[in-house]
Every structure is written in C-alpha cells, then in structure tokens.
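Table S2 (continued). Query chain:
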Amino acid sequence: MNPDEEQSRSYPLQEDMRWQRREWWLQKVGMVMLFLIVIAGACGLFSKGFLSEQQVSSGDRQLQVEYERFGRQLSTMNMAIRLQQLEGERFTLRIDRGAIDNFQLQTVQPQPLIARSQGHDLLLTWALPAQQHNASIWLTWQPLSFGHFHSTVSLDHGATVAFSQLIYP
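Corresponding output:
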C-alpha cells in the first residue's frame, strides 16, 4: 500500500485514518466471528451434530439414553433408550412431566403394549420376549417452545436417568 494511503487527509474527503483502522479491525473480527458461528453450527451447536449428541447412563448401566442436547423449536429430535439386564415378561418406562409438558411425542418404535398417564408422567409398557434381556426404544419428539428443559426417564425397576436440553427459538 502506498504510504500516502496510511495518512489522514482532507481532500477530496475528510478522513481520519485512526477511525478507518478501527473499522478495518472490526471488519476482521466480524469475519472471524461469522466463520466461528458457521463452524459451530456445522458441528452441532444449534442442532444435530457431534456437539449436540449426548449419552447418559444410570449408575448400574441398566438404562442408557442417547439424545440431542441442542435443538430448535418445532424441529424433530431423536432419542434412543437402551435397556440391559431386564428381568420378567414386561418392562415399563416412565417419562416425566418435564419432557411431556415441553415436547410433543411423535413416534415410538417399537410400539408399546400399554401407554398410559399417571399424574403428569407418561408410562409406556412393552413385552419382553423369552430369553431376551436387552431392549432398544427409539423416540422422535418435537419441542413445543424454546428454553432449557430438564427431563427424567426411569425404568420400573428403579434405574433413572436425568438430562437437560437447550432449545433455541
């Protein structure tokens, strides 16, 4: 750049290079911030992606929930519930009020034998085939509003997992 370009001048326009340098600096900072936001979004900071994928387990590892930590209002979110060391002919999952009040349950696979409410909780019951001690359940749900929500999923035998999700508008 020509050395004259770095000097303030008054002709043909009044310029103050100190303010011009500040503007250039802010422009560079803005470009870096925009780049970081795009990369964070691609990695899952605002919805699906490895930054959003989370997994929690009960203390005895009998109940494991894989869910999306970040989501957008009115977009679908997936959850996988994995159960191990099950006993008996049936098992029941309890999904608490925090999830039921703030999310609309869209699909449950496989379909439960019995679905009922108890208080503000949803209870889903499945049959367990003979000689099978593990099960997987997939849920799809949609956030009804934005905010930070706490949910609990528990097994009828007492294994409990609590987690939270941040939903953007």
